[in-house]
User: What shape does this take?
Amino acid sequence: MVEAAIIPMVMGGESQPLDVGRRRYRTTSTRKRALVVRDRGCVWPGCDRPPGWCQAHHLDEWLRGDGPIDLDNLALLCARHHHDVHEGGRRLQRDESGTWQVHLDLPPPRTPP
Assistant: This one.
């Protein structure tokens, strides 16, 4: 039996896909170019790493099923800050003015038995 799925997609100029729903994990080269134009490098506050040193980061984790692969859910981070987010318990968020903020996500305190 053949399986099919409908995937929502937003197209940019020249029919280049920008937002492709949740069927893919990795970003496309077109979407990465759009990230470079928008973010201009690592968005971590105070970091000046250029786009060539950066990776696309999912703000809402794709693997947990939280986030789509679209520009609103992606940000450029250098390897150091990308690691800080995934391994250091930090979360990146853009406020209403467009300023990036870093939050420390601590695990809930343990209650003794």
Summary: The mean pLDDT is 77. The first helix runs from residue 29 to 39. The chain has one domain: 10-104. Strands lie at 10-11, 17-19, 54-58, 74-78, 90-94, 100-104.
